[in-house]
């Protein structure tokens, strides 16, 4: 047994966990990171990543205390830790996610379900085929065949925030065709946006259990970081989109 493996497996649990919420989010962030080892070696991996990426050294004992709950990283260290784990620092540190009142939460749940059904109905009415995903734990809302191509679709309902729209997407959105649904005061004013995976990867904020993408709403249309988002107006627009075959 290596000294690193021994060090991680023999971590002594503290009498009092400083921050149970952070400890839980740290484990989630490690599990969701494709490069972080799932078992032994993740503490070493984190130390090496911080050192290689940010030129900062941490002792095995210091990192071990984060994972045992004996201590909580400082604000500066939290930024570095979030960077190597590729998650949002506010989420890792504070568990900060979109805040909803009970009424807003209920409204958003209804709007989310409605967005899925609305998009599926629009595809079917225009000649496409759809099949709803029966696995509730999966991140796919429904599967579709459009012009002979197969798609795994996530329909995300937009959350209005002044002149911006927030989309809450799966933690692993890259294997899906992610579409953002933005409502309006009229039936004809619904906007369906393609949320490209490269845009999500560059501008999205990973919060462990999900990814958030904030879209600018301006006169020319919808954009992220100055990149205009494609609008899906007909089934022909799906031909240029990337789906999961």
Q: What is the element layout, followed by pairings?
A:
Blueprint: H1 3-9, H2 20-32, H3 42-54, H4 60-68, H5 75-85, H6 89-94, H7 102-125, E1 129-132, E2 142-146, E3 149-157, E4 159-161, E5 164-170, E6 177-182, E7 191-194, H8 197-203, E8 205-206, E9 210-217, E10 222-224, E11 227-228
Parallel strand pairs: 3-6
Antiparallel strand pairs: 1-2, 2-3, 4-5, 5-9, 6-7, 8-9, 9-10, 10-11
Name of the CATH first level of the largest domain? Alpha Beta
| Major sheet details | 6 strands, antiparallel
Which value, in Å, is the CA radius of gyration?
A: 21 Å
> What's the number of structural domains?
2
Question: Short description, anyone?
Answer:
By secondary structure, the chain is an alpha+beta fold.
